[in-house]
Structure formats: C-alpha cells, structure tokens
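Fold these two proteins, one after the other.
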Amino acid sequence: MGSNKNIKHVIAVASGKGGVGKSSVTCLLAVSLARQGFKVGIMDADVTGPSIPKLLGLNGHPEREGDYLVPLKTELGIKIMSLNLLLEQADQPVIWRGPIISKVVIQFWEEIAWGDLDYLVIDLPPGTGDVPLTVLQSIPVEGIMMVTTPQDLAGMVVSKAINMAKKMEIPIIGLIENMSYLVCPDCGKRIEVFGSSKVETMGEKYGIKVLGRIPLDPNLVKLSDQGQIEKYESLSLFNNINNFLAE
C-alpha cells in the first residue's frame, strides 16, 4: 500500500511571510473542494507552528495501519496529518533543527495512508528555507497558491516566495489577498484597515492571476477559534480553483 500513489493533484499554499493566514486559506480551499465532491487531504507542513488541527477542531492521535499512519478525518471527510496530532500536548514546543523537520515532512508524504485523494493541499511554513524547499523538490506539487496581505512588508516578503517558485519552475495558481478589508456592519462600507490593496499591482508585476480578496470577517475568526472553520459559508472565491489543473 503506497501512501502517495493515489493522489491526483498536490497544491501548496505559501506566502513567505508569517501571519498572513496561510493555514486559514488552506482550510477554506480544502473545504470548498470537499463541498464540490472531491476527496481532499491536508498535510500540515508547518511542523514548528502547526495550526490546522485547531482550525478544524481535531484532537486525538492517528492510528497505525501496518507501516503507515492513518490520517484523522474532519466532519466533511477531509483527511488531516499534522505534527500536533502526534504530540502529547498541543502546546508542546517542537525544538528541532531543519534537517529533522524536513525528514518529518517527507514522512508525511511517504508514510501516511492517504488513500485515494483528488487533492492534497499542503500548508507550507513561512519563508523560503528547508521545509518549503524540501516540499517543492521532493513532492510533485502541481501548483502554488500565494497568500499576501495589503501591507508593503508582507508584499515584499511574499515576492521572495514568488521568485523561489519561479526559479523552481513550479506554476503559481494565483494570488489571494487576505485581511484585505473590513465591511462596516452598520453602513456596509469597505474599510481598508491595513492600507489600500496592492494585490492587482503584484499580480501584474509577476504575471500572476489574482484569485480574489478575503475580508476581515469576525464570523471566520469566531469559527476558527471554535475549530469549526468547515462551517464557514463564504467560499465562492475557491470554487473554480480545480479548473486550473484541468486546463
């Protein structure tokens, strides 16, 4: 039983910058694909800062099936593997050097009983270091979704991740600007809390499709804190992502 032989498509979610919402975007993408009837898994490759289980309300430890670990499943049937599911306590720190962390990521690809999947979505850690390089060099990633926010600093760092993907000749599915604006609950006006949007300019600069803008939504924050991000309804942004790989 090969853990990675029945996976049709692998998508990575990256930014280069921490705190822009990669894990949230990873979950929302997976939820959207699952609601469309696809079989989906999430690999939490952010080994030292794993947050996928928290967002999806998962606890417990994976069971062993022969030489493989069996990923946990969410209510929608999304298969999840994260280091946090292997720790005794969720707040236990992972104080490992890069080579060990990279080895764990490879094990998540080779030694997990993923079974039949249409999509495996990989939540990458920030930066352009050991783990992103290991994933892009060792796992057949078909496309990368880049996540940014309106701040100039975020855009600068995300540009590094874009250039890394281009150098490695990994197609970029597109750009998503997270925390792009806040909709006033009283008047409906869009308030650009972190400054004006720069995603269109970035898309034009690097020749990358802009997939859309995600607002600051208190309901998304609430559901995420409750481990119920699967119940979030505003997912139209992600509904056509599967068309990229069908082209």
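Now the second one:
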Amino acid sequence: MKKILVISITVCMILSVISGCNQDQSNEVLQGQDNEVNNENTNNQDDVENGQDDKNQFNILADEVIINEDSVTFIDGMDKEVTIQKNPQKVVCLYNSYLDLWYGAGGQVIGRIESRTKVPEKAMDTEIVGSMTSPNMEKIISMQPDLVIIRPGMRGQTEIIPILEQNKIPYLAIEYDNFDQYLYVTKIFTALNERDDLFVKNGLDISDKVQEIINKVPEDKQPTVLLMFTSTRNVSVKLENTFVGDMLYDLGAKNIAHDAQLTNEEMEIFSMEKVIERDPDFILVQTMGDVDEIKDKLIKDVESNPAWGALTAVKEGRYIFLPKDLYLYKPNARYYEAYLGLAKILYPDIFN
C-alpha cells in the first residue's frame, strides 16, 4: 500500500512539473503573439502618422463583378443580378458615353445612336439606329444583335426593354454618376471583352493617380463651392450626387446648395438670396450649349444683380467656367485630368 502511495505521489509531481512547463510555454507563446500584434499595430500607426497609408478608397464596387469562365455576373443599373456571355460580336450601343467606354474596353459595335458630340473614330461609320430618346427598334431587331447597351431611366430606353426581352435579345442596363461607378462599369466591359489589361490601364492606374491627389488635399480646409449648371434656357445648381459634385466632395469641398431640410429638387433651384447668404469661396459653372449665349443669359439673369459683384468668389476671381470636355460630358479615361483640374482650382498652392 505504501508502495502504491509513493508511486502516486511521484506521478503527481511529474504531471505537475509538465503542466507547469506547458503553462510557461503557453505564456511565452501568448506573450510573443501579443508582442507581434503590438508591433504590427505600432507599425501600422507609424505608417498612418507618416502618411504611408496607401489604402485606395475606390475599386470597391469593381471587386463585386464576378468573372466566370464564359460569362460575367454583376448587378445592373436596375439593381438586378444579370449574367452576360463574354465576347459579344454584334453589339448595339444606345448611349454615347457608354460607346466611348465600350471601345476603351476593347469592344466594337455594329450600331449606335446619332450624336452631335464626338464619338470614337472607329465608330464613326457605324450604322445609326435612331436617337437616344427614340431608338429604331425595327432596325435594331433586324440587325440581330447579341447585346444591346442601354441607360435605364433615360426616356426612350427603359421603354424598349420589354421589346428586347420579347425578341430574346440580351441587354446591358448600365447607370453611373461617379468615379466609383465608372470603375465598376469599366470592370464589366473589360471582363466581357476579356481585356484585363485595359481595366488596369483605364481603371486601376487612374484610380491610383486620383487617390494620390485626394491624399494631398489638406484636412484643415473645406472650401465652399457653388456648382452651377447653365444652358440658354435656365440656370440651376448641382449637388453632390452628380459626377462633378462627387469629385468636389472627394476633394474636400462643401457644396453650399446642400440643405438637409430641403428636397433635391428644392436645392437645385438657383436662389440668389441663398448664394448671397452663404457667399461661396468658389463659383464653378458647367455649360450646355453655346457658351457665348450662356454668358449673355448669365449677365441678364444673374450678374445684373448688384449683389453678385460683391460675392467673394466674384471679387477674387474664383468665378470659373469649367471646360465641357471634362465637366459636362463624363471624363471616363480622363478622370485623373478632371480631378487634377478641380484640385488646381481649389488648392492652387498645393497643385500648381
């Protein structure tokens, strides 16, 4: 009995020593992991403090495009999940901004709408299939396309969807209003044409350059901006939900038209009283139509008000007409130029 007791005590002592060693080793491992985490956090914090945080705020939407072996799956402009077969050969494009994007993604078309603006050189002699608001469906169907690119919500385009579906013609409904969405559409188009190289060139490379601009924007400044949209018919203001308004937001500018108590429609009405009250640092003007006629209308309807000349932006030479090629039509592959142009206006000391 004593022998058994001695053996039992001995075994317990051995187990106790082993347990203690294991506990010490576990503590060492945990302590080592803690040190690694702390070191990593410290390094990350140092990177942020030293301005080395290279995280890109864009490309998030583009990452949601699913590229399959023979097709591409994505959420279209009507919030529906769709799958389109790769390498369509007979494409009809019914919106010219997308025509430019499609050719930039390595694609070609057999039909396009009439246009008063510049279209890609390779598409100049392409068959015309009506106008943006009145596409010729009889002609489109006779061409037997394997893909029709449309802009949903545009008058004359959403209405043709039932006809396309009835004739079993695949269609790509796309909508984009900012740089994020441009990258998304570019990813879809390049994936359909199996041109990943063009997504790098016209998407990722531009995104990196735009992010570099945004990273240089001073955090302690928030210039106020009035973004006007003018034609020979009327004068209105634009908000952050437009592609120019979104770029200004990315660059740290504050849109003076924004008012949480008003609807978008109410905010878009040009109000001289509100402009005078909020006295913006910059007045930027988008123009549609003949610029000389537009300036005549502004002189008559806006600048004739004595208070206009007393505005800070007017007195200090920051009442600026934006070039159409970058700020009326979507800049697409020239987004970097568009961001840089606005950055030079808002922060001349940094970007000039």
